[in-house]
Structure formats: C-alpha cells, structure tokens
Amino acid sequence: MKRRLILKLAGAAITASLAFGGAAQAADTIKFGAVAPKTGPLAGGAVVTHWPNIKLWVAQVNARGGLKLKDGQRKIEVIEYDDQTNPGETIKAVQRLVTQDKVDFLIGPYGTGFNLAVAPVFAKYGYPLIAMTAITDQIPDLAKKFPGMFFTLGSTTPIVQGLADILAKLVKDGKIGNKIAMVNVADAFGIELANAARPIFKAAGLDVVYDKSYPLGTQDLSPIVKGAKAANPDAFVAWSYPPDTFGLTGQAMVQGLDVKVFYTAVATSFPAYGGKFGVAANNVMGTGGVNPDDPAIKEYMKAHKEITGLDADFWASSSVYASLQILEQAIEGVGEVDRAKVTEYMKSNSFKTILGDITFDENNNNAKYWTVGQWQDGVYQGVAAVGRDGAKEVRLKSGWK
Amino acid sequence: MDILITGLLLGGIYALMAMGLSLQYGVARIMNLANGEMLVVGAFAAFWFFTVAQLSPLISVFLIAPVIFALNWLIYQFMLLPLVKRAKSQGQLEVDSILATFGMSFILVGLMVAVFGGDYFNYTFLAEPMEILGNTYAANRVVAFLMAMLIGGLLYLWLNHTRPGMAMRAVSVDTEAAGLVGIDVQRMSALAFALGGTVTAIGGGFISTFQTMDASIGILFTMKALIIVIMGGVGDIRGTIVAALVLGLLETFIATVIDPGLTLAAAYLMFILVLLFRPQGFFGRKPS
Lengths: 401, 288
Hints:
Residues 1-26 of chain A have low confidence and may be disordered. By secondary structure, chain A is of the alpha/beta class. In chain A, the strands form 4 sheets. Chain A has a 7-stranded mixed sheet, sandwiched between helices. In chain A, strands 1, 2, 3, 4 and 5 form a 5-stranded mixed sheet that branches. Chain A has a two-stranded parallel ribbon with strand order 6-7. Chain A folds into 2 domains: 5-155 and 294-369, Response regulator (Rossmann fold), CATH 3.40.50; 156-289 and 371-386, 3-Layer(aba) Sandwich (Rossmann fold). In chain A, 43% of the residues lie in helices and 21% in strands. By secondary structure, chain B is an all-alpha fold. The relative contact order of chain B is 0.22. Chains A and B meet through helix 3, strand 9, helix 10, helix 11 and helix 12 of A and helix 1, helix 4, strand 2 and helix 10 of B.
C-alpha cells in the first residue's frame, strides 16, 4: 500500500499558478522528501512526534512566502511516503525520492534504526541528513563515515547518566535507598540502553536488584511488575516503548508498586500519557524533556496545536522542529539548492532554534539536550539536561493517587 | 496460585483473540490473516464509544456486534465466496484465502489510519486492583477473562446443542457430505465467517480496556491467534480455548519463574512440539 501524498499547503499562490498554467510551477517550489511510518509498529510514535512537525514547519514557512533564496522566495512542497516501519521500504522510498521525484532536500526518517539504515543512501546521493529522532552512542563513528549526517536528539550514555545522577543524588541525600528494579524491551533500543545502564548504575553506587527483559508486544506485563515489586526496590526503571510504557504504568498502579522513583522511557513525554493517567502520572519520570516555561517552546507548542490540531510531545517533537529550522536556516544561508554547500553551512554555523542556539560539534552532534523529564502537576518538565538551562527540581513519587 | 490465576487471565485474553479465527478457519476454511485487524476495529469502536459517549465497553460491544457481523457477512459474500467457488481443493482455497485476507489486512489498516490516524489510543476502564485469593489483579483483565469464558461457553453450547450448531459442525467435518444431507454449506460458511469476525471484534473491545493499541498492531494478534488455533486443533472451539489457556499459563510460568524475556521462545517451542508430536492439535481429528 504505497500512498503518495503530495502536500501542497501553499494556498492561494500555488492555486493561482496552477490556474494560469502549471508549467512554471516546478521552478516556483522547492521540493522536500519525507519518509517515515504512517503504519506499522512505530506509526503511533511518528504521528505524534514526526509528521505534525513537518506539517507545522511547511505551513509556517509557506505562510511567510517560502524559503528565501538568491533568486527569490520559493514555497515548500513535500512529497511524503509511508515506510510501514520497515527499513527496507525506507531505503526504497529515499531512492525513489531522489531518482524519480528529484527532490531538492530530504527530511530524516523516524527512529534510531531507520536513521542508521538510510545514512549510506543519503551519503551516496549527497543529501545532508539530520537525525532528529535517533539516540545512539555511535555518533563519532557515524559522523566520520557519513560527513553529511547530523544529530540533534543526543546519545545513549548521557541519557542514562542523567538518570543515574538523579538517582545517586537522591540516595546521597538520604531520600531513597539504592535498590533499583530495571526492565527493558528486548529490542535494539531497550537493549542498548539497558546495556549502557548496568555499568553506569553500578558506578553510581546503585544496586540493580531486578534486571529483566521482555519481548516487544508482550500482552501481559503483570509478571514483570510483580517480580519487580517482590524485589522491593526503591526505584523502578523501564527502558520501554510506547505500548509497554502505558502497560507497565497501568500494572504498577494496579499492583500498587510503591516506589519513590518511577521511570519509563519512550512515550512518557507524550501528552497522551498525562491524559490517560491524570494525577497518577504525577512525578513519573521519563526520557528526554523540554523546558515548557521557555517562551520559544511555549510559542511553538501553541502553534503546533493550532496548525496541526495535535499537542506536541514534551521531548522529541521540539527536536524535530528545531532540526527543520536548522535545515531552513542553512538553505537560506546558502541561498541556493546546493546540497554540498548547505552541508558545509550546517557544520560551520550556529542556528537559532526553539531549543536555543544549536552549534554542531566536531562530530556533527548537538551537544546540548534534555536527558530526563518528569510529570509535575500536569506538565512534563525537563529535570536533567546536558548544556541546557531551566531544569526543574526532581520530586519523589508518593503513590498513584 | 498467583501464577495459575495470572496465567488463566492471560489465557482468557488469548482465547478472545483466537476463538473467532477458530470458527472462520474451522468451518468456513478461511485462514483469515486480517483477524487481528478485525480485532483492532472492535477495539477502535469500543474506544470511540467510550471517549465520545462515555459508554462502557460492556455495553458498546453489543452495539458493535451487529455491524461487525454484517460487515463480515459482506466480506464473505463479495470477497471470499468467489474464491470458494473457484477453488478446486481445500488446499487451494486455503492458499487463496491467505493471500486475499493478507491483502485485506492492509486495506483495513489503511482505512483505520485514514479514519482515526496512526496515533496510539487507550482509555481507562476498570483499571482497578481486584483481590482474588490474596493477590491483586486488574479488574479489566478479570472482566475480559469472564467474557472470554462466557463467549466460549455460549459458542460451545450453541455448536453442540442446537440444530444450526450441529449443521455448522457438519460443515466443519466434511463440506461435501454436509451438502449431500441438505445443509446449505455456503450459508453456513458465511454465518461462521461473520460470527467469527464478530467474536474477534468483541474480544478487541475487551482487550482495548487494558492494552494500548494503534491502527497497525493487528498483526501481533493475528500471529498469536494463528498458533493458538493450530495448536488447539482445527474446527474445535474447545481446543482453541484449552490451547489459549495453556499458552497463557506457560507464558506466565516462564515469565515469573525463569525470565520474562523467554516467553516468546517458550510459546514457539510449545508450538513446534505440538506440530511435531500432535500435528492435528490438542482436540483435532487425525486426517483420514
């Protein structure tokens, strides 16, 4: 099922140009290709974090007349493909976008594995790739292999370290004991994080008393929560994917898993999480974050809601949007569709984004990002970050009521 | 004891997934690979009723049921009947129906994405602790288990103690012989297919009370239902329920005593052993 959706959000100007003969249209727009899941296991995440930001960004850029190039302003046209959460399809779609649709630029795909999968294809055709939803420790290697690949969401170790620091500090302050129950989804993401966490937790003086994995798509998570509860931990940490993030939280409530720190990974920062669990979500910690009090973020979230009708999530959404801003500013900075120059521009300039200033380091990495967040009174607040200000004080969880 | 109850609860949920497919495959001979999607349709409907009208899934499933029944009836009449008529042998029908329903699963996913979007959906219904013999369980899972047993029991009674039920079993045993004794095989097959789809969708409604889903999650349910139906024995609703409960118990036992990471491996190991030593399934008849 290959649905080809051509979004022409340009409005009146394009309609007019179509009406007066579409021949001139091709030169009037600048074409972007986008591939990410609309169906398949990761679609639920992509439709929260990925697709709405593309829609928002295109709408905003086109509303102000399009991208400013040397030969005048050009509106954005996006060609979208669904990769069905299948890396093989992602690669095929990227090739198609480059060879058939002849797009001027490509928007990075969704998810760590998918960004790694397409990196060689982007490199082969000379398109810059901003990995906006990838977390990996291989950034230096990847940047060496693929000089046109950039990273905005962060790497595995600091994300684990951020949590370990919080836990270690709570232990040191005598607020919690040092016993940790840790579970992970048996998938590349969960395994990489759990493997990174074991030595880091140990070095931080934490004692992992329960350490288990469960297969992706497990229907009944109650044995895991029961097992964790039986180990009598002070903190519960799950390197989980969206369905199990919801499932583990639900089971923890039912089983009355009373821990002072309850941490789940992906989707904890989704508005749907706070929506579903309400007050029970209070003081739950999760991966990543933002500073929702920052005026730029506030404005972004308002626009996101207005234009897409959806709430942005409190973590990767802003990273996706900031990455699109970087692409936008780099293209305008160069002033023409020259992909090599745009790549160079990204390496050597600083960009103003909703996350603050972003400058890529020698590994093409954005070294400033949020690592841990926490639901505090209905808002998901960043509580730990690398190089970003505005972290809120960590609170302890006290029951689920 | 805790393992036993947790396992039975999980097994009941598996039974909800698989009973419909058991009817569809056992009687209508349609290996329906869109089974999981039909389940998600039921879940979506329950979700929609709950969020829009605050209607409890316990009520809304009965509103959904006739619609799903009609939908599945139409699917059988217009999409699968031509395959049945064309098929020269049962084997050919199975291959054709697998391909056709596989395609149908994509259409259903596409429709659901178009209508509801690809976002995760869930709601909170009876997510309360419930104490049974000193251990706590989620009330919505207990309800789902009870419904599974109720539906399974009703189906069993209907199949074994009523005339149409007997006719349906006759079709399941031998389509040609059933036709010779005056049973309208085509009508029975359509009925079985529609009923199976309805049972699956109702199951989806109950599963949605505790599981987060999205439009494309159906394939996971299909895979589970498939191995349960094969393990239970084709065309026997008892076998399906027993296989579902055994699988639930096994997975819970493994997850609690050994390691949650091994549940999938254990499930497939059991599947392989059944295929090796009892290929007709727990309650299946030996092929003559």
